[in-house]
Amino acid sequence: MATASTRSVGGSAAPRSMRRVIVWGIVVGAVQVATPLAFWWLDAATVYAVGLAAIAFVYIGFAVADGRVHIVVAECAVAMAFVVVAAAGITGTAWLLVAGFAAHGVKDAWQHRSSFVSGTRWWPPFCAAVDWVVALAIVLEIVLGTRFHT
Fold this sequence. Notes:
Layout lengths: L13 H20 L1 H4 L5 H23 L2 H23 L3 H20 L8 H21 L7
């Protein structure tokens, strides 16, 4: 039974719980922004690129759990596209990393609306929040003159 704290319009707890998921995405995004500090011996671009590639592969796991072959194939292709962008961002301009994280956030938002891969109810809004926080932080780092390559 829904309590007063979980009820919303229409009797669903979804809007409140999605806000919580998005807040956690912002928190995790902020932690991800700090990951170059944990891997001080690597260029910031490399650390961010590894993060972009890693999050792209999460949907392959969801696709396998979904079980439909065309979903697995599509998610593998999309993940590989993000890996290419991430790899280019290691030695190229940091704007490629911004584009990669921002695009992955757009892909997450599309996934949330379309439910292309089943069983991902809370993941896309969480991941989109992470992606967009990291993209925004990299933009700020670029504007502030941070060096991404040594």
